[in-house]
Each structure stands twice: as structure tokens, then as C-alpha cells.
Amino acid sequence: MNEIEETMLKKIICEALNELYYNDKYLIQHDQKLQNILNDLHNIANKVPNMSRDVKDISDKVKEYVSERAIVFRFGIYLHELMCDNECLKHYHLDCEYNRNMDHIKTLEANAIVPDMLIHKRGSMEENLLVIEFKSWWNENNAHDKEKIEKLTDPKGKFKYKFGLSIIIKKEFPPTLEWVSAEHRIFEPLTFEDIMGTSKENCN
Predict the structure, then answer these.
(1) Torsions phi, psi of 49, nearest 5?
(2) Which domains, from first to last, does the chain contain?
(3) pTM of the complete model
């Protein structure tokens, strides 16, 4: 992909994230009212002897978020629709948790890996376009994800993905995006202001 096409790829990712936040706020934010109640209980418990432990037990049992996979699935639907309408990308495959490397298990340094999302062509090692790793606002530590992306985009490595993207789904829009390419080996922040409206399709 040339520079114009890379910008176009960033743009449709931003468009898919726009759709996710617009249509699926429940998946991202669904526990907010419950969390407010738990916070109130903690404030009361701090003033009542022997109550704090009981409140913590309640919190541990009820503080459950929608699975990250459910959020990634919905994002994948929006991204796939945009890819199908895009002349540059409609021939690529979009896969979640794809664990194959041709006819073998996908591994890095002898360890099996399952990337959250890939844009690639199945059965080919020549068309590895983009690897995406996700984290959610309740678990934002993406250091391991970025390390994995760096290895998958290493031009001297086995997989040679052209681009990598770390996405942290924040409770409120916008999410945190960090982009890396095989050519430029440094993660750079992406902002919606910089990306949206700057790209035109060009597949020359």
C-alpha cells in the first residue's frame, strides 16, 4: 500500500469505531449505573464498622463487564461492511482470533498466539496487511499487545504485517489508537481529527 492507501485504511477504521460507539454504547458502558451504586456503598461502608469487607464481596461478584470479544465482534461487523465497499480492501479477509499460519498454528518464539483481529488473505504469507489488538477501559494495560504487534510487523520476522494497531476502547468516545508500520518502527498516536476527511480512495 502507498501512503494514500494507508491513510484510507486508517480512515475506515475510524469510521467503524464511530459506528461502534454510536450503535453499541450499551456494550461499552452498560455497567455505569451499577458502578455508581457500588461506589455509594463503598462510601457508606467506610463509615460503618465491619461493613467494608461485605461490600467488597458484593463488588467482586457483580462487577462483571461485557466480554471484550463482544465489543470486538461488533467492531468487526462495521469494519467488514466498509471493507466490502472499498475497492482496495474488498479482496482481503477480516478474521477475529485467527490462529493459523498457513497449515500450522500461528506461533511467535515457539508460543501459540491468537491476534484479536487481522486483515489478510488466508493461505498466503504475502498479503498480511494489518494486525489489531484491543483492550477495554477496565483493563488498559496494552504493553503486551504492543510487543506482540511489534513482532508481527517486524519486516525481518516471519509474518511481516505491513501495519499494526493498538486500540483501547475507552468508556467515552474517542478510543485510544496507536499505529505502527513495518517501515516506521515507532508507535504513533492516531486522532480522529487528523484522519477523518483526509483520505480519498486510490488503488493505483
Answers:
(1) -55, 135
(2) 3-26+65-195 (3.90.1570.20), 31-62 (no CATH)
(3) 0.80
